[in-house]
Design a protein that fits this description.
Strand content of chain B: 15-25%
Number of helices of chain B: 17
CATH class of the largest domain in chain B: Alpha Beta
Shape of chain A: globular
CATH topology of the largest domain in chain B: Alpha-Beta Plaits
Order of helices and strands of chain A: HEEEEHEHHHEEHEEEHEEHEHEEEHEH
Largest sheet of chain A: 8 strands, antiparallel
Oligomer: heterodimer
Number of strands of chain A: 17
Strand order of the largest sheet of chain A: 13-10-12-11-15-16-14-17
Largest interface: A-B, 90 and 97 residues
Number of helices of chain A: 11
Chain lengths: 357, 484
C-alpha cells in the first residue's frame, strides 16, 4: 500500500507549494460534523484507498488498521473473534472509515462505562504538514515513551495530520446483554443512573427519553441475571436495535428539531430547562437537545458551561454558527501554536474545528 | 541570575522554611528513585499554594531559570533529577484533598496528595482510585500524571490517562489552564492526553480531578505454577482469548520465585519455571464463574499446580510475594537495576531467552517480573556497584534488553518514563523527524525550554553522537532476535 502514502505525500507537497489547503476525506459520513472548511479553494484528499488490516492479534487485544478501512469491515473481523471496539463508535453511514472515527473522536452508548475513542487509541502513524511519515505510540497497552501524540489525534478533526494507521485496544464482546426499561420522571432517572453507577454493576449503557429510562446490562450470564433482579424494570425486546438507533441517531428523536445540540456536561446536572426535546445518555453526562433554530445559541452554551461542560451544534441548519464551543483566548493561542508545529503551512482541514486555524 | 539574587526574590513571598539553598538541605533532593544519578539543585522551593507556584514560575520565566518539578521522588527514571543551575519545585506541600463527590464519583485533589490517600478518603463511599503503582503508599498523584502511571490492575481499569477528568496546569509564564472538564470530554484538542505522561516538560499540575470507581464486591486469585515459561505465556493468551479481562495478571520467573520465597514464604512452588497470578474481581456471581474458567484454562495450558485463594487473607498472601519482588531483589543482591520494557506477549518467551543469553554473557543475574496482562516486563538486573565496572556492564545489559523490546514491536518504557535514564533508547525508538516533533510540541508550551530541560526527549545531537541506528518499531521485525 505504499503507493497511496506516496500519493498523499505528493499531495501535501503540492498543497504547501500552491498554498491550496486539503480537505481530508474518507467516505464523507461525518462531513456534516464540525465546521465546513473556510477556504473555498481547496483540494480533497481521498484517503479511502489506504485501507486494510495491518495486524490483528486477538490474544493481545490489539488491532492495527489503515485509516481508510471501513469501520464495518473492521468490526466484522473483530466479531469473528468475539471482540469489539468497546467505545461503540457511531458510523453515520455504511462506508464510514476508521480514520473518520478517530478524527472525530466520537463514541457511542458504552462510553461512560468502557471509555471513549481516545481511551482505546494505542498508536498512530500520521503524515504531518511537511509530509513526514511519523509513528507514535505502538501496539502495546502501556507506553510512556514520548508525548502521547497518537491520542492527541482523536478528535483533532484532521487538523494536525493525515491519519495513516491506527492501533486500537479491543475488548471481548460480553457473553450476554439485556436491556431493561422503566418509566419515571427525568430528575428521578438522573438520580437512578448515579445510584447504579456507584455500585459495581455491569451496566454498559443508559438512556432516558420521553419518560422512560433504559439500561443495558452486559457480562457473564450469572452477573447479568443477578443485576436484572437488583435493577428491576421490564426486559425490552429488540434491545440491540434500540441501542443501535441511539448510537447511529436513527431514533426518531434525533430528527425532531431543526438543530441537534450535544451538551456534554457534569453528569449530576439537574434537568436542563431548555425549549425542545431532550434525550439523555451516558449516565447523565450527555444531553441531546433537538431544538428549533430560533433558540438562541448563547443560552445553550451558557447552560452547558454552567453545568461544567460544553455544547456542540451537532447538525441542522448552522447559518453563521460555529459547531464547537468557543475556547478561551489563551487556550486558543495554545491550540494555534500546536497546530503550527504539526502543520506550519496550515493546509489540513482549515477552519474545520475553529475559524482561527 | 545568581543563587543569592534568586533566593532573595523567592523570600519576598515565601517563608524561610520554604526556600532551601544550604548544601545540607539540598542533599535529600539530589536524586529520585533512580539513585544512580545524583546532583544537587541550586535552590529547592516548597510552595503551599497555587499562587506561590505561579509567582515562582514567573520568576523562573523572567530570569530564564530551569525548573524541575518533584512529587514524592519515587520515580524510577530520574525524571525529577534536579538541574544544577535550576530550581527544584517540590509540590509535596500541596497535599490537600479538596473535594470528594460521591455522586459523580470524582475527587479533586492537589498534586502532592499520595495515590493511596485518595482511595482511603473515598473508601467510606465504597469508591476507590483505580491506578495502583507499586509505590502507591508514597507516590503522589502529580507524579502519577507526569508519568502516566499504571499498576497491577491497569489491563482492566486503565492507566492514569484513563482515570483523570481535569487538570489545572500552569505554563512556565504562570498562565493557568483548565484542561479537561467535569464532563466526559472537552472542546478542542485532547490536551489532557498530551499532558499525561509528559514528565513535567509542558506544564506544572496544581490540581487533578480523578475518577473514582465502585469497589468490587469480591476479588479472588488463581495461582498457577508452570514447568515451562512458554506454557505460562500461552496460558496468558488463552485466558484473554477466552473473553476474560482479568483484574490483574502477573508472571514471575524461577529466579524471582526463589528470591521472594526465601524472603517471604508466600507458598510459591520452588520447582516452577514460572508462576502466574491471575485475579478476577466484580460481582460475586461473576467472579465465581471467571475463576472457574481461568483455572480450567490454566489446566489446559499445562499448569502443574493450581491454587485458588480461599479467603481474603490467602489472596493477599499470594499477592505478597509478587509485591515483594523488588525488595527481594534488594535482599539477594547489593544493587539492582529495574528495566521497564513492553513487548507483545507472543514474543515473551523469545525475549526472556534473549535475556538469559545476555545474563550469561555479562555474568549478571536477572530476575524477571512481568505484568503479563499488559505485557510490561520488568527485568531486575542484579549487580554490585562496589565492583568496579559492574554498573557500566549493567547499563549496557539493560540497554540491550530495551533494544530487544523495540525490535519485538514493544517500547522502551511501559510505565516508568524516559526521564534521564532512557534518553539514548529514545534515539532508537524514534526517528529524527519524530523527535523533532516532540521538541516542537514542547516549544508550543515552553519555548525557552525551562521546564525539566534535558529530560524525556533527547537532543538531536545526542542521538547523532550516539550513532545508534534507529530501529523501526512495531512492524513484526522480530525474526532478527536474538542477534548478539
Amino acid at each position: 500500500m505504499p503507493d497511496s502514502i506516496e500519493h498523499f505525500v505528493h499531495a501535501i507537497g503540492t498543497a504547501v507549494k500552491n498554498k491550496r489547503p486539503l480537505s481530508i476525506r474518507g467516505s464523507g459520513s461525518k462531513h456534516f460534523y464540525g465546521n465546513q472548511a473556510t477556504k473555498h479553494t481547496y483540494d480533497t484528499l481521498d484517503v479511502t484507498t489506504h485501507s486494510g488490516i495491518v495486524n490483528y492479534e486477538p490474544s493481545e487485544l490489539v488491532v492495527t488498521a489503515r485509516a481508510g478501512t471501513r469501520l464495518a469491515d473492521l468490526e466484522a473481523i473483530l466479531l469473528e473473534h468475539h471482540q469489539m471496539l468497546a467505545f461503540e463508535p457511531p458510523h453515520f453511514g455504511k462506508n464510514a472509515t476508521l480514520g473518520g472515527c478517530i478524527a472525530t473522536g466520537l463514541s457511542g452508548p458504552r462510553r461512560p462505562y468502557a471509555g471513549a475513542a481516545r481511551d482505546f487509541v494505542l498508536g498512530a502513524r500520521i503524515l504531518d504538514g511537511r509530509g513526514d511519515d511519523l509513528h507514535f505510540g505502538g501496539q502495546v497497552m502501556k507506553n510512556v515513551a514520548g508525548y502521547d501524540v497518537s491520542r492527541l489525534m482523536a478528535g483533532a478533526m484532521g487538523t494536525l495530520g493525515v491519519l495513516l494507521e491506527v492501533s486500537l485496544k479491543v475488548l471481548p464482546i460480553p457473553p450476554m446483554e439485556i436491556t431493561l426499561g422503566m418509566s419515571m420522571k427525568e430528575a428521578e432517572a438522573i438520580d437512578k443512573m448515579h445510584q447504579w453507577a456507584s455500585k459495581p454493576l455491569p451496566i454498559s449503557a443508559t438512556c432516558f427519553y420521553d419518560g422512560n429510562l433504559f439500561v443495558r446490562v452486559s457480562g457473564a450470564e450469572s452477573a447479568v441475571q443477578a443485576t436484572r433482579t437488583r435493577l428491576g424494570g421490564e426486559e425490552i425486546n429488540q434491545g440491540k436495535l434500540f441501542w443501535q438507533s441511539i448510537r447511529e441517531h436513527t431514533h426518531t428523536f434525533f430528527s425532531s428539531g431543526t438543530r441537534l445540540w450535544r451538551l456534554s456536561i457534569k453528569s449530576s446536572t439537574l434537568p436542563l430547562l431548555l425549549p425542545g426535546q431532550q434525550l439523555i445518555e451516558w449516565g447523565g453526562a450527555l444531553r441531546w437537545l433537538a431544538a428549533d433554530k430560533d433558540l438562541n445559541e448563547k443560552i445553550i452554551r451558557l447552560q452547558a458551561e454552567a453545568a461544567g461542560g460544553h455544547a456542540t451544534l451537532f447538525y441542522g441548519e448552522k447559518s453563521s454558527l460555529q459547531a464547537f464551543h468557543p475556547l478561551s483566548p489563551h487556550m486558543m493561542t495554545l491550540h494555534q501554536r500546536l497546530k503550527q508545529k504539526f502543520d506550519p503551512a496550515k493546509i489540513f482541514n482549515p477552519g474545520r474545528m475553529y475559524p482561527e486555524y | 541570575m545568581s543563587r543569592f539574587e534568586l533566593v532573595s526574590k523567592l523570600l519576598s513571598f515565601l517563608p524561610p522554611e520554604a526556600v532551601l539553598y544550604e548544601m545540607e538541605d539540598l542533599k535529600p533532593y539530589e536524586c529520585d528513585g533512580l539513585s544512580a544519578y545524583r546532583q544537587a539543585p541550586m535552590i529547592v522551593v516548597l510552595p503551599q499554594a497555587e499562587e506561590e507556584v505561579i509567582k515562582i514560575l514567573q520568576i523562573c520565566h523572567a530570569t530564564k531559570t530551569p525548573v524541575v518539578a518533584r512529587g514524592a521522588g519515587t520515580g524510577l527514571s530520574g525524571g525529577a533529577l534536579p538541574h544544577t543551575e535550576g530550581i527544584l519545585l517540590s509540590l509535596a506541600k500541596l497535599k490537600h484533598i479538596l473535594e470528594i463527590d460521591p455522586i459523580t464519583r470524582t475527587a479533586r485533589v492537589q498534586p502532592g496528595v499520595r495515590n493511596l490517600a485518595i482511595s482511603e478518603a473515598a473508601a467510606p463511599y465504597g469508591l476507590y482510585y483505580a491506578p495502583d503503582p507499586s509505590s502507591q503508599i508514597a507516590c503522589t498523584i502529580g507524579g502519577n500524571v507526569a508519568e502516566n502511571s499504571g499498576g497491577v490492575h491497569c489491563l482492566k481499569y486503565g492507566l492514569t490517562v484513563h482515570n483523570i477528568l481535569k487538570l489545572r496546569v500552569l505554563t512556565i509564564d504562570g498562565q493557568v489552564y483548565e484542561i479537561g472538564s467535569n464532563a466526559l470530554d472537552s472542546p478542542g484538542y485532547d490536551l489532557l492526553a498530551l499532558m499525561t505522561g509528559s514528565e513535567g516538560m509542558l506544564g506544572i499540575v496544581t490540581e487533578v480531578t480523578v475518577k473514582l470507581i465502585p469497589k468490587p464486591e469480591k476479588a479472588q486469585l488463581v495461582m498457577a505454577a508452570f514447568d515451562d515459561i512458554q506454557k505460562a505465556a500461552d496460558a496468558v493468551a488463552s485466558i484473554i482469548s477466552s473473553g476474560i479481562i482479568p483484574a490483574g495478571m502477573e508472571m514471575m520467573d524461577k529466579i524471582t520465585i526463589h528470591a521472594v520465597e526465601d524472603f517471604l514464604h508466600a507458598g510459591y512452588d520452588l520447582d516452577a519455571a514460572a508462576i502466574l497470578l491471575c485475579e478476577a474481581d466484580g460481582m460475586g456471581e461473576e467472579v465465581t464463574g471467571e475463576i472457574q474458567k481461568i483455572s480450567a484454562v490454566m489446566q489446559d495450558n499445562g499448569a502443574v499446580k493450581i491454587s485458588i485463594s480461599r479467603d481474603e487473607a490467602e489472596r493477599l498472601r499470594f499477592w505478597a510475594g509478587r509485591k515483594a519482588a523488588f525488595p527481594a531483589a534488594g535482599r539477594v543482591s547489593p544493587d539492582y537495576y529495574c528495566m521497564d520494557g513492553t513487548i507483545p506477549r507472543k514474543h515473551l518467551a523469545q525475549v526472556l531467552h534473549g535475556i538469559e543469553i545476555l545474563s550469561a554473557e555479562y555474568g549478571l543475574r536477572c530476575m524477571n517480573v512481568f505484568h503479563a496482562g499488559d505485557r510490561n516486563l520488568h527485568p531486575l538486573i542484579l549487580y554490585d556497584a562496589n565492583q568496579p565496572g559492574e554498573l557500566e556492564k549493567t547499563e549496557i545489559f539493560g540497554a540491550k534488553i530495551l533494544k530487544m523490546c523495540i525490535e519485538a514491536g514493544g517500547t522502551i518504557t511501559g510505565e516508568h518514563g524516559v526521564g534521564i535514564e532512557k534518553l539514548d533508547q529514545m534515539c532508537l525508538q524514534f526517528t529524527p523527524t519524530e523527535r523533532n516533533l516532540f521538541h516542537a510540541i514542547k516549544a508550543a508550551f515552553d519555548p525557552d525550554e525551562l521546564l525539566n530541560p534535558g529530560k524525556a526527549i533527547p537532543a538531536l545531537h545526542r542521538c547523532a553522537e550516539l550513532g545508534g541506528m534507529h530501529v523501526r518499531h512495531g512492524e513484526d521485525r522480530f525474526p532478527t532476535i536474538p542477534r548478539f
